[in-house]
What does this fold into?
Amino acid sequence: MANRSRRVAPVGLALVLTLVMAGCNANSQSPEPAKEKAKAAAALESVPQGQTLHYLSRRANESFETANAQMVPTSRLRWVHRGLTSWQTFPDKDTILVPDLATDTGTTADGGKTWTFTLKEGLKFSDGSPITAQDVKYGIERSFAPMFQGGLGYHKTLLVGGTDYDGPYDGKKLDSIEVVDDHKIVFHLKRPFGNWPWIVSMPAFAPVPAAADTKPETYGEHPVASGPYQVTSFRKGSQAVLERNPNWKADTDQARFAGPDKIVLDMGLNNDTIVQRLIDDKGEDKAAISNALISPSQFQRIESDPSISNRMANSPSGYFRYLAMNVKRPGLSDVRVRRAINYAVNKAELQSVYGGPKFGGQITSTIMTPGIPGHTEYDLYDGGDTGNVDKAKELLAEAGVSELKLTLTYPTDVSAIEEKEAQSIKNSLARIGVKVELKGLDGDTWSELVSSDDGDYDMTTNGWGADFPSGMSTIQPLFASSEIGNGGGNASKYSNPKVDAAIDAAIAEPDLGKAATMWAAIDKQIMEDAPVVPILVQRTQALAGSKIMNYFIPAYPPFANELVVGVGR
It folds into this structure.
Protein backbone atom coordinates (compact mmCIF):
# COMPACT_ATOMS: atom_id res chain seq x y z
CA MET A 1 0.00 0.00 0.00
CA ALA A 2 1.19 3.46 -0.75
CA ASN A 3 1.41 4.92 2.70
CA ARG A 4 -1.37 7.43 2.88
CA SER A 5 -4.03 8.59 5.27
CA ARG A 6 -7.05 6.33 5.40
CA ARG A 7 -10.34 7.52 6.85
CA VAL A 8 -12.32 4.79 8.51
CA ALA A 9 -15.91 4.46 9.61
CA PRO A 10 -16.59 4.11 13.34
CA VAL A 11 -15.34 0.56 13.63
CA GLY A 12 -12.38 -1.06 15.34
CA LEU A 13 -8.96 -2.62 14.96
CA ALA A 14 -6.23 -4.08 17.11
CA LEU A 15 -3.02 -5.63 15.97
CA VAL A 16 -1.58 -8.78 17.44
CA LEU A 17 1.58 -10.70 16.63
CA THR A 18 3.36 -13.76 17.89
CA LEU A 19 5.93 -13.86 15.14
CA VAL A 20 9.20 -15.04 16.69
CA MET A 21 12.55 -15.03 14.99
CA ALA A 22 14.13 -18.47 15.18
CA GLY A 23 17.61 -18.59 13.70
CA CYS A 24 17.31 -17.50 10.09
CA ASN A 25 13.66 -18.53 9.90
CA ALA A 26 11.18 -15.70 10.18
CA ASN A 27 8.73 -17.70 12.24
CA SER A 28 9.14 -20.89 14.19
CA GLN A 29 6.34 -23.10 12.91
CA SER A 30 5.50 -26.77 13.01
CA PRO A 31 6.24 -28.56 9.72
CA GLU A 32 2.94 -30.40 10.13
CA PRO A 33 0.13 -28.12 8.86
CA ALA A 34 -2.58 -30.66 9.68
CA LYS A 35 -1.52 -30.67 13.34
CA GLU A 36 -1.43 -26.87 13.51
CA LYS A 37 -4.81 -26.69 11.80
CA ALA A 38 -6.19 -29.14 14.34
CA LYS A 39 -4.99 -26.89 17.14
CA ALA A 40 -6.77 -23.93 15.54
CA ALA A 41 -9.93 -25.98 15.06
CA ALA A 42 -9.85 -27.06 18.69
CA ALA A 43 -10.14 -23.42 19.71
CA LEU A 44 -13.22 -23.02 17.51
CA GLU A 45 -16.38 -24.96 16.79
CA SER A 46 -16.25 -28.01 14.58
CA VAL A 47 -17.38 -26.82 11.15
CA PRO A 48 -19.64 -29.27 9.32
CA GLN A 49 -19.08 -29.95 5.64
CA GLY A 50 -21.84 -28.94 3.30
CA GLN A 51 -24.59 -26.29 3.11
CA THR A 52 -24.51 -22.94 1.31
CA LEU A 53 -22.97 -19.79 2.76
CA HIS A 54 -24.45 -16.45 1.68
CA TYR A 55 -22.41 -13.26 1.64
CA LEU A 56 -24.27 -9.93 1.54
CA SER A 57 -21.99 -7.19 0.26
CA ARG A 58 -22.54 -3.46 0.16
CA ARG A 59 -19.79 -3.26 -2.48
CA ALA A 60 -20.95 -3.30 -6.09
CA ASN A 61 -17.45 -3.86 -7.45
CA GLU A 62 -16.66 -7.19 -5.79
CA SER A 63 -14.18 -9.31 -7.72
CA PHE A 64 -11.45 -11.84 -7.07
CA GLU A 65 -8.65 -9.78 -8.58
CA THR A 66 -5.52 -9.83 -6.42
CA ALA A 67 -3.29 -7.32 -8.21
CA ASN A 68 -4.97 -4.24 -6.76
CA ALA A 69 -6.81 -5.65 -3.73
CA GLN A 70 -6.47 -4.24 -0.22
CA MET A 71 -8.17 -7.09 1.61
CA VAL A 72 -6.52 -8.81 4.56
CA PRO A 73 -5.63 -12.53 4.23
CA THR A 74 -8.67 -13.57 6.29
CA SER A 75 -11.13 -12.11 3.76
CA ARG A 76 -13.37 -13.67 1.11
CA LEU A 77 -10.71 -13.05 -1.54
CA ARG A 78 -8.83 -15.93 0.08
CA TRP A 79 -11.64 -18.38 -0.54
CA VAL A 80 -10.25 -18.46 -4.07
CA HIS A 81 -6.59 -17.47 -3.70
CA ARG A 82 -3.75 -18.62 -1.47
CA GLY A 83 -0.52 -16.78 -0.70
CA LEU A 84 2.98 -17.71 0.41
CA THR A 85 1.92 -17.08 4.01
CA SER A 86 -1.41 -16.46 5.71
CA TRP A 87 -2.91 -15.54 9.08
CA GLN A 88 -4.48 -17.79 11.66
CA THR A 89 -6.90 -16.09 14.04
CA PHE A 90 -8.54 -17.09 17.31
CA PRO A 91 -11.35 -15.67 19.47
CA ASP A 92 -9.11 -15.25 22.50
CA LYS A 93 -5.50 -15.63 21.36
CA ASP A 94 -3.02 -13.73 19.27
CA THR A 95 -3.19 -13.84 15.49
CA ILE A 96 -0.19 -15.66 14.08
CA LEU A 97 1.53 -15.85 10.73
CA VAL A 98 1.50 -19.34 9.21
CA PRO A 99 2.84 -20.91 6.01
CA ASP A 100 0.30 -21.18 3.21
CA LEU A 101 1.69 -22.21 -0.17
CA ALA A 102 5.17 -22.10 1.35
CA THR A 103 6.67 -24.68 3.68
CA ASP A 104 7.56 -22.02 6.25
CA THR A 105 7.25 -18.27 6.74
CA GLY A 106 10.50 -17.42 5.01
CA THR A 107 14.21 -17.45 5.74
CA THR A 108 16.87 -14.76 5.51
CA ALA A 109 20.62 -15.14 5.75
CA ASP A 110 21.58 -11.47 5.44
CA GLY A 111 19.57 -9.68 8.09
CA GLY A 112 16.34 -9.27 6.15
CA LYS A 113 17.47 -7.98 2.75
CA THR A 114 17.05 -11.30 0.91
CA TRP A 115 14.17 -13.69 1.65
CA THR A 116 13.70 -17.26 0.43
CA PHE A 117 10.50 -19.31 0.30
CA THR A 118 9.99 -22.92 -0.75
CA LEU A 119 6.61 -24.09 -2.06
CA LYS A 120 4.98 -27.27 -0.78
CA GLU A 121 4.95 -30.33 -3.02
CA GLY A 122 1.85 -31.39 -4.94
CA LEU A 123 -0.03 -28.07 -5.00
CA LYS A 124 -2.41 -27.64 -7.94
CA PHE A 125 -4.67 -24.96 -9.43
CA SER A 126 -8.35 -25.61 -10.03
CA ASP A 127 -7.57 -26.46 -13.66
CA GLY A 128 -5.25 -29.26 -12.53
CA SER A 129 -1.97 -27.56 -13.44
CA PRO A 130 0.79 -27.45 -10.81
CA ILE A 131 1.33 -24.28 -8.77
CA THR A 132 4.92 -23.20 -9.29
CA ALA A 133 7.24 -20.45 -8.10
CA GLN A 134 6.95 -18.94 -11.59
CA ASP A 135 3.18 -18.54 -11.06
CA VAL A 136 3.85 -16.68 -7.81
CA LYS A 137 6.39 -14.45 -9.56
CA TYR A 138 3.97 -13.67 -12.39
CA GLY A 139 1.14 -12.90 -9.96
CA ILE A 140 3.34 -10.36 -8.20
CA GLU A 141 4.66 -8.86 -11.44
CA ARG A 142 1.21 -8.14 -12.85
CA SER A 143 0.41 -6.05 -9.75
CA PHE A 144 2.92 -3.49 -11.08
CA ALA A 145 0.92 -2.91 -14.28
CA PRO A 146 -0.58 0.61 -14.52
CA MET A 147 -4.07 -0.87 -15.02
CA PHE A 148 -3.87 -2.22 -11.45
CA GLN A 149 -3.19 0.97 -9.55
CA GLY A 150 -3.98 0.83 -5.85
CA GLY A 151 -3.88 -2.16 -3.58
CA LEU A 152 -1.33 -2.94 -0.90
CA GLY A 153 1.89 -1.95 -2.59
CA TYR A 154 4.67 -2.27 -0.01
CA HIS A 155 6.48 -4.66 -2.35
CA LYS A 156 6.52 -2.10 -5.17
CA THR A 157 8.97 0.12 -3.32
CA LEU A 158 10.85 -2.61 -1.45
CA LEU A 159 11.82 -4.91 -4.33
CA VAL A 160 14.96 -3.91 -6.24
CA GLY A 161 13.88 -2.24 -9.49
CA GLY A 162 10.26 -2.11 -8.43
CA THR A 163 9.78 1.63 -8.75
CA ASP A 164 10.78 1.48 -12.44
CA TYR A 165 8.84 -1.65 -13.35
CA ASP A 166 5.47 -1.57 -15.17
CA GLY A 167 4.44 -5.19 -15.16
CA PRO A 168 4.86 -8.22 -17.43
CA TYR A 169 2.54 -7.27 -20.28
CA ASP A 170 5.36 -5.80 -22.39
CA GLY A 171 7.43 -8.95 -21.91
CA LYS A 172 9.66 -7.56 -19.16
CA LYS A 173 10.47 -9.40 -15.93
CA LEU A 174 11.35 -8.14 -12.47
CA ASP A 175 14.75 -9.69 -11.76
CA SER A 176 14.56 -9.04 -8.02
CA ILE A 177 11.98 -11.84 -7.88
CA GLU A 178 14.23 -14.80 -8.55
CA VAL A 179 12.77 -18.19 -9.45
CA VAL A 180 15.39 -20.80 -8.56
CA ASP A 181 13.22 -23.76 -9.61
CA ASP A 182 9.56 -24.77 -9.59
CA HIS A 183 9.46 -24.71 -5.80
CA LYS A 184 11.92 -22.03 -4.69
CA ILE A 185 11.52 -18.26 -4.97
CA VAL A 186 13.90 -15.57 -3.66
CA PHE A 187 13.12 -11.89 -3.10
CA HIS A 188 15.88 -9.27 -3.29
CA LEU A 189 14.99 -6.08 -1.40
CA LYS A 190 16.52 -2.64 -1.52
CA ARG A 191 17.11 -2.67 2.21
CA PRO A 192 16.65 -4.99 5.17
CA PHE A 193 12.97 -5.35 6.01
CA GLY A 194 12.07 -7.56 8.95
CA ASN A 195 8.34 -7.66 8.21
CA TRP A 196 8.67 -9.21 4.73
CA PRO A 197 7.01 -12.49 5.85
CA TRP A 198 3.87 -10.47 6.58
CA ILE A 199 4.11 -8.66 3.25
CA VAL A 200 4.02 -11.92 1.27
CA SER A 201 0.65 -12.74 2.84
CA MET A 202 -0.88 -9.81 0.96
CA PRO A 203 -3.15 -10.27 -2.10
CA ALA A 204 -0.56 -9.54 -4.80
CA PHE A 205 1.43 -12.62 -3.77
CA ALA A 206 -1.28 -15.05 -4.93
CA PRO A 207 -0.12 -17.26 -7.84
CA VAL A 208 -1.47 -16.52 -11.32
CA PRO A 209 -0.68 -18.76 -14.32
CA ALA A 210 0.41 -16.50 -17.18
CA ALA A 211 -1.38 -18.65 -19.75
CA ALA A 212 -4.72 -17.89 -18.10
CA ASP A 213 -4.16 -14.13 -17.96
CA THR A 214 -5.29 -13.39 -21.52
CA LYS A 215 -7.76 -10.69 -20.46
CA PRO A 216 -6.20 -8.98 -17.42
CA GLU A 217 -9.04 -6.47 -17.07
CA THR A 218 -11.55 -9.22 -16.29
CA TYR A 219 -9.30 -11.94 -14.86
CA GLY A 220 -10.70 -11.30 -11.38
CA GLU A 221 -14.14 -12.42 -12.51
CA HIS A 222 -13.02 -15.95 -13.42
CA PRO A 223 -9.55 -16.51 -11.94
CA VAL A 224 -7.79 -19.84 -11.77
CA ALA A 225 -8.20 -20.84 -8.13
CA SER A 226 -5.50 -21.97 -5.74
CA GLY A 227 -7.81 -21.90 -2.70
CA PRO A 228 -10.66 -24.22 -1.72
CA TYR A 229 -13.26 -22.53 -3.95
CA GLN A 230 -13.47 -21.64 -7.64
CA VAL A 231 -15.75 -19.07 -9.28
CA THR A 232 -18.38 -20.92 -11.30
CA SER A 233 -20.64 -17.95 -12.06
CA PHE A 234 -19.99 -14.20 -12.08
CA ARG A 235 -22.40 -11.39 -12.90
CA LYS A 236 -20.56 -8.10 -12.46
CA GLY A 237 -22.12 -5.88 -9.82
CA SER A 238 -24.73 -8.50 -9.05
CA GLN A 239 -23.68 -11.97 -7.93
CA ALA A 240 -20.82 -14.46 -7.81
CA VAL A 241 -21.19 -18.17 -7.11
CA LEU A 242 -18.30 -20.22 -5.73
CA GLU A 243 -18.08 -23.98 -5.56
CA ARG A 244 -15.41 -26.39 -4.38
CA ASN A 245 -12.03 -26.57 -6.08
CA PRO A 246 -11.47 -30.34 -6.45
CA ASN A 247 -7.69 -29.90 -6.49
CA TRP A 248 -7.41 -28.12 -3.13
CA LYS A 249 -6.04 -30.31 -0.37
CA ALA A 250 -7.08 -29.53 3.19
CA ASP A 251 -3.96 -31.08 4.71
CA THR A 252 -1.79 -28.45 2.98
CA ASP A 253 -3.79 -25.51 4.31
CA GLN A 254 -3.59 -24.18 7.89
CA ALA A 255 -5.68 -21.07 7.27
CA ARG A 256 -8.99 -22.31 5.79
CA PHE A 257 -11.68 -24.65 7.12
CA ALA A 258 -13.70 -24.64 3.84
CA GLY A 259 -16.91 -25.98 5.37
CA PRO A 260 -19.62 -24.85 2.92
CA ASP A 261 -20.02 -26.67 -0.39
CA LYS A 262 -21.19 -23.48 -2.06
CA ILE A 263 -20.89 -19.74 -1.48
CA VAL A 264 -23.24 -17.16 -3.01
CA LEU A 265 -21.98 -13.56 -2.92
CA ASP A 266 -24.61 -10.88 -3.60
CA MET A 267 -23.19 -7.45 -4.47
CA GLY A 268 -24.22 -3.81 -4.26
CA LEU A 269 -26.81 -4.15 -1.50
CA ASN A 270 -27.88 -1.22 0.66
CA ASN A 271 -25.95 -1.22 3.94
CA ASP A 272 -28.96 -0.63 6.20
CA THR A 273 -30.98 -3.19 4.28
CA ILE A 274 -28.29 -5.81 4.90
CA VAL A 275 -28.27 -5.11 8.64
CA GLN A 276 -32.06 -5.28 8.79
CA ARG A 277 -32.09 -8.59 6.91
CA LEU A 278 -29.58 -10.02 9.37
CA ILE A 279 -31.60 -8.73 12.30
CA ASP A 280 -34.76 -10.35 10.88
CA ASP A 281 -32.85 -13.63 10.31
CA LYS A 282 -35.21 -15.25 7.81
CA GLY A 283 -34.74 -17.88 5.10
CA GLU A 284 -31.32 -17.87 3.42
CA ASP A 285 -30.23 -14.95 5.61
CA LYS A 286 -29.92 -17.38 8.50
CA ALA A 287 -26.82 -18.65 6.68
CA ALA A 288 -25.46 -15.19 5.81
CA ILE A 289 -22.54 -12.97 6.76
CA SER A 290 -21.72 -9.53 5.38
CA ASN A 291 -19.46 -6.49 5.27
CA ALA A 292 -22.25 -4.13 6.38
CA LEU A 293 -21.49 -1.51 9.02
CA ILE A 294 -23.75 -1.37 12.06
CA SER A 295 -24.57 2.22 12.97
CA PRO A 296 -24.68 3.43 16.59
CA SER A 297 -28.43 4.00 16.20
CA GLN A 298 -28.89 0.25 15.61
CA PHE A 299 -26.97 -0.87 18.70
CA GLN A 300 -29.87 -0.33 21.09
CA ARG A 301 -32.23 -2.52 19.03
CA ILE A 302 -29.64 -5.27 18.74
CA GLU A 303 -28.58 -5.08 22.38
CA SER A 304 -32.14 -5.25 23.66
CA ASP A 305 -32.82 -8.62 22.00
CA PRO A 306 -30.54 -11.54 23.04
CA SER A 307 -31.53 -13.51 19.94
CA ILE A 308 -29.87 -10.75 17.91
CA SER A 309 -27.08 -9.62 20.23
CA ASN A 310 -25.84 -13.20 20.58
CA ARG A 311 -25.16 -13.13 16.84
CA MET A 312 -23.15 -9.92 16.91
CA ALA A 313 -19.37 -10.01 17.04
CA ASN A 314 -17.65 -7.09 18.80
CA SER A 315 -13.93 -6.48 18.42
CA PRO A 316 -11.78 -6.39 21.57
CA SER A 317 -9.79 -3.47 20.20
CA GLY A 318 -9.79 -1.13 17.22
CA TYR A 319 -8.63 1.60 14.86
CA PHE A 320 -6.44 4.46 16.05
CA ARG A 321 -8.62 7.58 16.14
CA TYR A 322 -6.76 10.84 16.67
CA LEU A 323 -6.61 14.62 16.31
CA ALA A 324 -3.67 15.71 14.14
CA MET A 325 -2.13 19.13 14.78
CA ASN A 326 -0.28 20.78 11.91
CA VAL A 327 3.04 21.63 13.57
CA LYS A 328 3.99 23.92 10.68
CA ARG A 329 1.25 26.37 11.58
CA PRO A 330 2.26 29.36 13.78
CA GLY A 331 -0.37 28.68 16.40
CA LEU A 332 0.79 25.10 16.88
CA SER A 333 4.55 25.35 16.42
CA ASP A 334 5.17 25.52 20.20
CA VAL A 335 5.12 22.04 21.77
CA ARG A 336 3.63 23.52 24.95
CA VAL A 337 0.52 24.55 23.01
CA ARG A 338 0.18 21.06 21.54
CA ARG A 339 0.62 19.52 24.98
CA ALA A 340 -2.03 21.88 26.34
CA ILE A 341 -4.47 20.66 23.71
CA ASN A 342 -3.68 17.06 24.72
CA TYR A 343 -4.64 17.91 28.28
CA ALA A 344 -7.76 19.83 27.24
CA VAL A 345 -9.62 17.29 25.08
CA ASN A 346 -12.59 15.61 26.74
CA LYS A 347 -12.07 12.05 25.51
CA ALA A 348 -15.00 10.67 27.48
CA GLU A 349 -17.37 12.88 25.48
CA LEU A 350 -15.78 11.75 22.23
CA GLN A 351 -16.13 8.14 23.33
CA SER A 352 -19.83 8.79 23.86
CA VAL A 353 -20.12 10.31 20.38
CA TYR A 354 -18.82 7.05 18.92
CA GLY A 355 -21.20 4.84 20.90
CA GLY A 356 -19.67 4.51 24.35
CA PRO A 357 -17.02 2.13 25.68
CA LYS A 358 -18.75 -1.07 24.54
CA PHE A 359 -19.46 -0.13 20.94
CA GLY A 360 -17.48 3.05 20.32
CA GLY A 361 -14.08 2.10 21.67
CA GLN A 362 -11.61 2.57 24.47
CA ILE A 363 -9.96 5.86 25.39
CA THR A 364 -6.26 5.87 24.50
CA SER A 365 -3.14 7.94 25.07
CA THR A 366 -0.70 6.03 22.83
CA ILE A 367 -0.18 5.74 19.08
CA MET A 368 0.09 1.96 18.80
CA THR A 369 -3.13 0.21 19.70
CA PRO A 370 -3.34 -2.66 22.21
CA GLY A 371 -2.08 -5.85 20.63
CA ILE A 372 0.55 -4.36 18.38
CA PRO A 373 3.90 -5.87 19.37
CA GLY A 374 5.57 -3.38 21.67
CA HIS A 375 2.39 -1.55 22.66
CA THR A 376 2.96 -0.10 26.13
CA GLU A 377 0.42 1.79 28.17
CA TYR A 378 1.54 5.27 29.19
CA ASP A 379 0.01 8.73 29.35
CA LEU A 380 2.29 11.74 29.10
CA TYR A 381 -0.65 14.13 29.37
CA ASP A 382 -2.92 12.51 31.91
CA GLY A 383 -5.90 14.78 32.25
CA GLY A 384 -8.28 12.00 33.12
CA ASP A 385 -11.01 10.96 30.74
CA THR A 386 -12.57 14.43 30.68
CA GLY A 387 -9.36 16.49 30.48
CA ASN A 388 -7.43 18.77 32.80
CA VAL A 389 -8.39 22.36 32.06
CA ASP A 390 -6.11 23.93 34.70
CA LYS A 391 -3.01 22.11 33.43
CA ALA A 392 -3.83 23.06 29.84
CA LYS A 393 -4.22 26.74 30.78
CA GLU A 394 -0.94 26.59 32.70
CA LEU A 395 0.92 25.34 29.62
CA LEU A 396 -0.63 28.02 27.41
CA ALA A 397 0.49 30.65 29.90
CA GLU A 398 4.03 29.24 29.86
CA ALA A 399 3.96 29.52 26.06
CA GLY A 400 2.87 33.15 26.35
CA VAL A 401 -0.42 32.45 24.60
CA SER A 402 -3.30 34.62 25.76
CA GLU A 403 -5.46 34.28 22.66
CA LEU A 404 -5.47 31.52 20.08
CA LYS A 405 -7.70 30.90 17.07
CA LEU A 406 -7.45 27.60 15.17
CA THR A 407 -9.27 25.86 12.35
CA LEU A 408 -10.43 22.24 12.60
CA THR A 409 -11.01 20.61 9.23
CA TYR A 410 -12.91 17.35 8.85
CA PRO A 411 -14.54 15.28 6.08
CA THR A 412 -18.31 15.52 5.78
CA ASP A 413 -19.14 12.44 3.70
CA VAL A 414 -18.15 9.62 6.06
CA SER A 415 -20.89 9.93 8.66
CA ALA A 416 -22.58 12.49 10.88
CA ILE A 417 -20.26 11.36 13.66
CA GLU A 418 -17.35 13.28 12.12
CA GLU A 419 -19.17 16.58 12.63
CA LYS A 420 -20.20 15.67 16.18
CA GLU A 421 -16.60 14.72 16.92
CA ALA A 422 -15.34 18.08 15.61
CA GLN A 423 -17.95 19.98 17.67
CA SER A 424 -16.89 18.09 20.80
CA ILE A 425 -13.25 19.04 20.27
CA LYS A 426 -14.27 22.65 19.68
CA ASN A 427 -16.16 22.64 22.98
CA SER A 428 -13.18 21.11 24.81
CA LEU A 429 -10.78 23.77 23.57
CA ALA A 430 -13.22 26.56 24.34
CA ARG A 431 -12.77 25.63 28.00
CA ILE A 432 -9.14 26.77 27.82
CA GLY A 433 -9.85 29.91 25.80
CA VAL A 434 -8.94 28.49 22.36
CA LYS A 435 -11.41 29.47 19.67
CA VAL A 436 -11.93 26.85 16.97
CA GLU A 437 -13.51 27.39 13.57
CA LEU A 438 -14.95 24.20 12.06
CA LYS A 439 -14.48 23.57 8.34
CA GLY A 440 -16.26 20.58 6.83
CA LEU A 441 -15.06 19.42 3.41
CA ASP A 442 -16.11 16.69 1.03
CA GLY A 443 -13.89 13.63 1.31
CA ASP A 444 -11.84 14.14 -1.85
CA THR A 445 -11.11 17.79 -1.05
CA TRP A 446 -10.27 16.90 2.54
CA SER A 447 -7.93 14.09 1.49
CA GLU A 448 -6.13 16.29 -1.01
CA LEU A 449 -5.72 19.03 1.60
CA VAL A 450 -4.29 16.94 4.43
CA SER A 451 -1.98 14.95 2.14
CA SER A 452 -0.50 18.08 0.55
CA ASP A 453 2.82 19.55 1.66
CA ASP A 454 1.46 22.82 3.05
CA GLY A 455 -2.24 22.31 3.65
CA ASP A 456 -4.19 25.35 4.82
CA TYR A 457 -5.48 23.93 8.09
CA ASP A 458 -4.48 23.84 11.74
CA MET A 459 -6.03 20.58 12.90
CA THR A 460 -7.88 17.61 11.45
CA THR A 461 -9.46 14.44 12.76
CA ASN A 462 -8.54 11.07 11.29
CA GLY A 463 -8.55 7.32 11.81
CA TRP A 464 -5.96 4.75 10.87
CA GLY A 465 -5.91 0.98 10.53
CA ALA A 466 -2.65 -0.88 10.10
CA ASP A 467 -2.20 -3.34 7.22
CA PHE A 468 -0.20 -5.87 9.21
CA PRO A 469 0.79 -6.38 12.86
CA SER A 470 3.75 -4.08 13.37
CA GLY A 471 4.34 -0.63 14.80
CA MET A 472 5.75 0.23 11.40
CA SER A 473 2.33 -0.02 9.79
CA THR A 474 1.04 2.86 11.91
CA ILE A 475 4.04 4.92 12.97
CA GLN A 476 5.92 5.14 9.67
CA PRO A 477 2.99 6.30 7.47
CA LEU A 478 1.70 8.80 10.04
CA PHE A 479 4.94 10.32 11.39
CA ALA A 480 7.90 9.79 9.03
CA SER A 481 9.10 12.96 7.30
CA SER A 482 8.90 11.11 3.97
CA GLU A 483 5.11 10.96 4.38
CA ILE A 484 4.59 14.74 4.36
CA GLY A 485 2.86 15.76 1.13
CA ASN A 486 2.66 13.85 -2.14
CA GLY A 487 -0.32 11.90 -0.88
CA GLY A 488 1.40 10.83 2.34
CA GLY A 489 -0.42 10.22 5.61
CA ASN A 490 1.57 12.58 7.86
CA ALA A 491 -1.32 14.99 8.52
CA SER A 492 0.61 16.64 11.38
CA LYS A 493 3.45 17.59 9.01
CA TYR A 494 5.66 16.27 11.80
CA SER A 495 9.36 16.02 11.02
CA ASN A 496 12.01 14.93 13.52
CA PRO A 497 15.34 13.61 12.13
CA LYS A 498 15.93 11.53 15.26
CA VAL A 499 12.51 9.91 14.91
CA ASP A 500 13.14 9.27 11.21
CA ALA A 501 16.41 7.52 12.03
CA ALA A 502 14.73 5.44 14.73
CA ILE A 503 11.94 4.45 12.30
CA ASP A 504 14.47 3.34 9.68
CA ALA A 505 16.34 1.26 12.24
CA ALA A 506 13.18 -0.45 13.48
CA ILE A 507 12.03 -1.23 9.94
CA ALA A 508 15.37 -2.87 9.14
CA GLU A 509 15.49 -4.99 12.32
CA PRO A 510 14.89 -8.66 11.38
CA ASP A 511 14.42 -9.72 15.01
CA LEU A 512 10.78 -8.76 15.39
CA GLY A 513 10.89 -9.05 19.17
CA LYS A 514 13.66 -6.46 19.28
CA ALA A 515 11.83 -4.36 16.69
CA ALA A 516 8.73 -4.30 18.91
CA THR A 517 10.78 -2.76 21.72
CA MET A 518 12.13 -0.18 19.29
CA TRP A 519 8.63 0.75 18.11
CA ALA A 520 7.51 1.20 21.72
CA ALA A 521 10.30 3.70 22.30
CA ILE A 522 9.45 5.56 19.08
CA ASP A 523 5.79 5.77 20.10
CA LYS A 524 6.72 7.60 23.29
CA GLN A 525 9.41 9.66 21.55
CA ILE A 526 6.81 11.03 19.13
CA MET A 527 4.30 11.80 21.87
CA GLU A 528 6.95 13.84 23.71
CA ASP A 529 6.57 16.22 20.74
CA ALA A 530 2.76 15.93 20.91
CA PRO A 531 1.92 16.22 17.18
CA VAL A 532 -1.39 14.41 17.79
CA VAL A 533 -3.99 13.84 20.45
CA PRO A 534 -4.72 10.09 20.65
CA ILE A 535 -8.46 9.77 21.23
CA LEU A 536 -9.88 6.27 20.84
CA VAL A 537 -9.14 2.73 19.85
CA GLN A 538 -12.35 2.21 17.90
CA ARG A 539 -14.24 -1.06 17.87
CA THR A 540 -15.84 -3.05 15.04
CA GLN A 541 -19.17 -4.82 15.15
CA ALA A 542 -20.56 -7.40 12.72
CA LEU A 543 -23.78 -9.38 12.60
CA ALA A 544 -24.34 -12.90 11.26
CA GLY A 545 -27.27 -15.21 10.61
CA SER A 546 -28.33 -17.72 13.25
CA LYS A 547 -26.88 -20.74 11.40
CA ILE A 548 -23.38 -19.25 11.11
CA MET A 549 -20.62 -20.85 13.18
CA ASN A 550 -17.20 -19.46 14.19
CA TYR A 551 -18.21 -15.86 13.61
CA PHE A 552 -15.95 -13.71 15.76
CA ILE A 553 -13.72 -10.67 15.43
CA PRO A 554 -10.19 -11.39 16.65
CA ALA A 555 -7.86 -8.87 18.21
CA TYR A 556 -6.45 -8.41 14.73
CA PRO A 557 -7.62 -7.87 12.00
CA PRO A 558 -10.80 -5.86 12.68
CA PHE A 559 -13.05 -8.19 10.72
CA ALA A 560 -14.49 -11.64 11.17
CA ASN A 561 -12.27 -14.35 9.69
CA GLU A 562 -14.33 -15.35 6.66
CA LEU A 563 -12.13 -18.40 6.03
CA VAL A 564 -13.20 -20.31 9.14
CA VAL A 565 -16.96 -19.71 9.24
CA GLY A 566 -19.29 -22.64 8.76
CA VAL A 567 -23.01 -23.14 8.27
CA GLY A 568 -24.85 -25.29 10.78
CA ARG A 569 -27.61 -27.64 9.73
